[in-house]
Amino acid sequence: MLEQIDEIGQEVVASLSWAPDWAVSLLVLGAAALLALALHRAVYRVLTRLVEQRELFWRSLVQRTEGPVRMALVVFALSIAAGIAPLSPGQTTVLRHGLLICFIGLLGWVMLTALHIWTTVYLRRFKLEAEDNLLARKHATQSRILQRVAATLIVVITAAVALMTFDGVRQYGVSLLASAGAAGIVVGLALQPLLKNLVAGIQLAITQPIRLEDAVIVEGEWGNVEEISSTYVVVRLWDWRRMVLPLSYFIENPFQNWTREGAALIGTVMLYVDYTAPIPEMRRKLEEIAKGSSRWDGKVVNMQVTDFKQDTMEVRMLVSAGNAGRAFDLRCEVREKMIGWLQAEYPHALPRRRAEIDRAPQAALAAE
């Protein structure tokens, strides 16, 4: 088939022998590019109609591969046209070099697309929306960090291979390798922040001290891990602010992870009451509040007197919930209902200050 296309092209060029070579070359190259674009448009119009009623994955697959296929068809068509057009040897060399660079870029683009499709297919088995999503967050974090690291390496390698096609750059690279002592130190120092975060990203993907949607406390702020990129982590704070931290922060600094082994948490409520407070009745009321709340997961409900102060005693109430958000709301609910119940039923149990009056001096003064 390629031979037939070549023969047809030669006949067309021969029929245009009256025109200048540069005009014929532009016509042949332009016609080849237009034919490739027309073929691509026709094929993807059919594919789009075929998948428009199917699930999101297939629609996304067609959309993701549209760009690489378009570029591949154009490069293929121009490579055939370069052998047909009446170009000079210098023009042919330049054109083929440009097509080689485009082909290298196409390979990198295809690898990035394949990486994205593989990650998407792999993560389809896990649902972050599930109540107990520890396994899903684990795999999603690993896959997305490694995907970004691999994408960075693909871009760097593709750019390096494309630059090595130039003789001047290739010779410079050889000479640089020959004297790589000082140059390696300089480049290493210049790329230290990038390399540091790149290595930290690999460490995070393997050891996973944090995962997507983990509840963490960093820099004294509570929030959820919203995004993990190849160089930084975005923490969505409780008041919708975003804290951006470098990846290396989570390797080098201590922080709290409330959902490291599971999403469920035990919430603590501290209450300070008078020594006359009815502890057994308060314990029964706590159980009643927990059982009547939709936020309680049915696992832990407990109350203990944990300390004595000068005027009050410290009561600790424990209740568990399925995740950090529910645990916080449940703690607030327990505080509100418990203090309201004490105010209504046992107002004397609220903290009071006592003053003792010595009546003996007053009686002596009255006798005088």
* Integer average pLDDT: 79
Termini Cα gap: 132 Å
Shape: elongated
What order do the strands of the largest sheet run in, or round the barrel if closed?
A: 4-3-2-1-5
Tell me the number of strands: 8
Beta-strand share of residues: 15-25%
Structural class: alpha+beta
Number of domains: 3
Give the uncertain stretches in residue-range form. 173-187
Biggest pleated sheet: 5 strands, antiparallel
Helix content: 55-70%
**Count of DSSP H/I helices:** 12
- N-to-C SSE series? HHHHHHHHEEEEHEEHEEHH
Radius of gyration of CA atoms, rounded to a whole number: 36 Å
InterPro entries: LSM_dom_sf (IPR010920), MscS_beta-dom_sf (IPR023408), MscS_channel_2nd (IPR006685)
Subcellular location: Membrane
Pfam families: MS_channel_2nd
GO molecular function: mechanosensitive monoatomic ion channel activity
Question: What's the arrangement of secondary structure elements?
Answer:
Layout (H helix, E strand, L loop, with lengths): L1 H14 L5 H31 L4 H29 L4 H35 L10 H30 L3 H12 L1 H11 L1 H16 L7 E4 L2 E8 L3 E6 L4 E5 L2 H4 L3 E2 L7 E9 L5 H13 L4 E13 L4 E9 L2 H22 L13 H9 L1
Helix pairs in contact: 1-3, 2-3, 3-4, 4-5, 5-8, 10-11
Main location: membrane
Subcellular location: Membrane
Organism: Pseudoroseomonas cervicalis ATCC 49957
